[in-house]
Amino acid sequence: MSSQDITARAPRTQRKLPSEVNILLVLIGIAVVFEILGWIFQGQSFLFSWNRLKIMILQVSVIGIIAVGVTQVIISGGIDLSSGSVVGAVAMVAMSFAQVSTYARAVYPGLTDLPMIVPLLIGLGCGAIVGLINGWLIAYTKIPPFIATLGTMVTVRGFAKWYTKGQPVSFPTEGFAWIGSGMMPVVIFILVAAIFHVAMKYTRYGKFTYAIGANAQAARVSGIDVERHLVKVYVIAAMLAALAGMVVAARGQTAQAGMGLAYELDAIAMAVIGGVSLNGGRGSILGTAIGMVIFGVIISGFTFLRLDAYYQEMIKGAIVVAAVVADVHRQNKRRKTS
Amino acid sequence: MVSARTAAAIDRVKAIIDREGVLSISGIRKEFPGVLALDDVQLRIRPGTVHALMGENGAGKSTLMKIIAGVYQPDAGEIRLRGQVVALRSPLDALEQGISMIHQELALMNWMTVAENIWIRREPKNRLGLIDHAKMAQMTADLFARLNIGLDPTVQVSELTVAQKQMVEIAKAVSHNSDVLIMDEPTSALTEREVDHLFAIIRDLRERGIGIVYITHKMNELFEIADEFTVFRDGKYVGTHNASDVTRDDIIRMMVGREITNMFPKVDCPIGDTILEVRNLTLPGVYHDVSFSLRRGEILGLAGLVGSKRSNVAEALFGVHPAESGEILIDGKPVTVANPAQAMAHGMAFLTEDRKETGCFLTLDCLENIQSALITRSHVRNGFVQQAEVNRLAEDMARTLRIKTPNLQETVENLSGGNQQKLLIARWLLTKPRILILDEPTRGIDVGAKSEIHRLITELAAQGVAVLMISSELPEVLGMSDRIMVMHEGHVSGFLNRDEADQVKIMSLAAK
């Protein structure tokens, strides 16, 4: 190549085919397989049932809200195992500030019939505190994210059980119950996903998150305050888990300390299936959203085919491993060609 | 007792080896998706010689070495080892057939001892089938005595310096008693004295009849150690010559296929007022009392051997690892630089030494890599990056620096080293720095890209940017700098002006 044609062909900022297209193709493939199996084994359509699709998306959107937060954590090069426990703890705390006065055994008898915004803010505040602890541990004491969030996972679950000594908290106000009613979980998920899709793609917050995940040292030398940014990332992740916790509690009109058990793993699985690389620096909210739908299609597909729940769990695990294998394979391929 | 027939057979093989070389390859072709890495190349290594392999980055040297070491399989071609056609199916296979390779990236196990690393898979066992550590230590000591290496075999590898690890790698390769030894840039992390030691080892191995393949970017090494050399260009064989028959310029011409009339196009430009002054910068145990000043339009070269802590001083200036005491003055006013963001606020920019470790975001695209520093300070409104404006700036800069990429959406890991380096320079130029710190700006990139970067540095100086340039290549320091500061083990050992400096003066200050 001579130097003339280098100058002539100036690099341009043109759009390439987004990598999410591949994941979308996987989703379509899986849906088609279930559709065919449906006609063979059940004699009916899998996809063309509005009710089934509604239930399917409702089932996954609560964990989808968590997955959005977890996605930006994984893109930053970390992991968050505490989200399931945050769901349980925040469900308990928020619900205790959302009870009706007609219920005789409220947690705080003097604080009943509060407007919906009060428990909502308290819940988000609790999430933020857990996120601050996670972020501080990871950014400033430099312990691995896996260990830091494993610690908060256990501690926060313990707090949830201690909060009412294991008693469930029930009877929320109508206002609070509204956030979990009908299709609200799906609406909240779509809002959250849209906001963070824009944030990750077009704001400095998103650019910094990708940069830190791709190369934290280089990000630091570029003038990014890596530590402060990581704290923000973990605070946001925990606040989204808190929101999910309140949606779950509101939907069931009760909160229990064991709520959200293993949600963090499903959320991570959705992100990984959606093409978010566990090495950081790669992935998108859109990918995770598609990953979430794949997750939902598989679960409701198996139920539809009347596959035993035990098999479902085993297959779910295998799918997550397969998604990680695909990620590692993609990276090896890249390394070889470069 | 060797029978007459066997002796005759041995003689025949010896004759073949003398004629064809211990390792002789021909017609090798290797294609990667979208790239023809090697096209009909040949190479012949005679026993008891050092054969240097030369070529720009991307010429195919490393690919060929990986084929010889069994890492890659060729698509076509023939490999003859001691006169026999062989297939090298894996690195282990190549090793067992007598080919050892010392990789550019060190491949030692940090949490094991030196001896365990060297004899891994070949550990001496005692009667119970357990590893005989005493014997292993003895074997290592014998090996080190032979190579004149003064290291404790029982020490953990993680405690060694990079240079010491390199020595362990070499000892490990030698311990296999291979006929062919491949060294890929073995001196990149070594100090002058260690290089001398390495060359002594190489000469000893040559005496023993081993064929050594030596890859280097450093021209001086070629003339000091190599007997023969082969040049590749763009995956093709260019030629093989005796080192004694050619000059440095001949080799550069063969590598690039064109005349390089002026490798260092430094033009004199007016030098302005002092912009940066450093007084008694000290980080105990690392560097002490470093003082110097830098003026607008000046290029201050910073020379020194490995261990001179040049990069640490640069990191202190930019706030990556601040100094403990001392003063930094910009435009005559004392400033604090506790982190890179503060340094950037004072108009500094810092191109780090290690592109992969502290420079590039390899998984991200060119645009993200170019804009990362800019958007920490400007072009963001209400949290949103003003992408249209940034795109325009990035495209202009990419054009100015002649970054070769189909578009700015290309992932950076797909770019060559030279283009990655230009991308990082683009990142910093977008911040419009007044003080530019460059740490090894042309390390590991090909000759063409090198001279382009040199031209660019000169142009920046002409525009009034003050440049501090760290470089391990003396010709580069001499060719580019208005003034040269030399460091030795954390102390400034002297300054030289452009007209009085030469390699000998620099080295005598650097080595003391």
From TrEMBL, chain A:
Presence of the UniProt keyword NADP in the record: no
Q: InterPro entries from the entry?
A: ABC_transp_permease
**Ranges in coiled-coil conformation:** none
Gene Ontology CC terms: plasma membrane
Residue intervals passing through the bilayer = 21-41, 53-74, 86-104, 116-139, 146-164, 176-199, 230-249, 285-304
Q: How does it sit in the membrane?
A: Multi-pass membrane protein
Q: Tell me which CDD domains the record gives.
A: TM_PBP1_transp_AraH_like
User: Where, subcellularly, is it found?
Assistant: Cell membrane
A GO molecular function annotation here is: transmembrane transporter activity
* Keyword tags: Cell inner membrane, Cell membrane, Membrane, Transmembrane, Transmembrane helix, Transport
Q: What is its main location?
A: membrane
Entry's PANTHER family? Answer: ABC TRANSPORTER PERMEASE PROTEIN YPHD-RELATED, ABC TRANSPORTER PERMEASE PROTEIN YPHD-RELATED-RELATED
Q: What is this protein called?
A: ABC transporter permease
Q: Which organism is it from?
A: Paracoccus subflavus
UniProtKB/TrEMBL annotation, chain B:
Could you tell me the keywords of this UniProt record? Answer: ATP-binding, Cell inner membrane, Cell membrane, Membrane, Nucleotide-binding, Repeat, Sugar transport, Translocase, Transport
Record-annotated ABC transporter domain positions: 23-259, 271-508
Report which reactions are catalysed by this protein: D-galactose(out) + ATP + H2O = D-galactose(in) + ADP + phosphate + H(+)
| One Gene Ontology term from the biological process aspect of the record | monosaccharide transmembrane transport
Q: Name one GO cellular component term.
A: plasma membrane
Which Gene3D superfamilies does UniProt cross-reference here? P-loop containing nucleotide triphosphate hydrolases (3.40.50.300)
Entry protein name: Ribose/galactose/methyl galactoside import ATP-binding protein
Q: Which PROSITE patterns match?
A: ABC_TRANSPORTER_1, ABC_TRANSPORTER_2
As for membrane topology, the entry says:
Peripheral membrane protein
EC numbers: 7.5.2.11
* Stored SMART domains: AAA
Supply the SUPFAM superfamilies for this chain: P-loop containing nucleoside triphosphate hydrolases
Gene Ontology molecular functions? ABC-type carbohydrate transporter activity; ATP binding; ATP hydrolysis activity
General function of this protein: Part of an ABC transporter complex involved in carbohydrate import. Could be involved in ribose, galactose and/or methyl galactoside import. Responsible for energy coupling to the transport system.
Location(s), subcellular: Cell inner membrane; Cell membrane
CDD domains with a match to the protein in the record: ABC_Carb_Monos_I, ABC_Carb_Monos_II
Q: What class of enzyme is it?
A: translocase
Q: What protein family does this chain belong to?
A: Belongs to the ABC transporter superfamily.
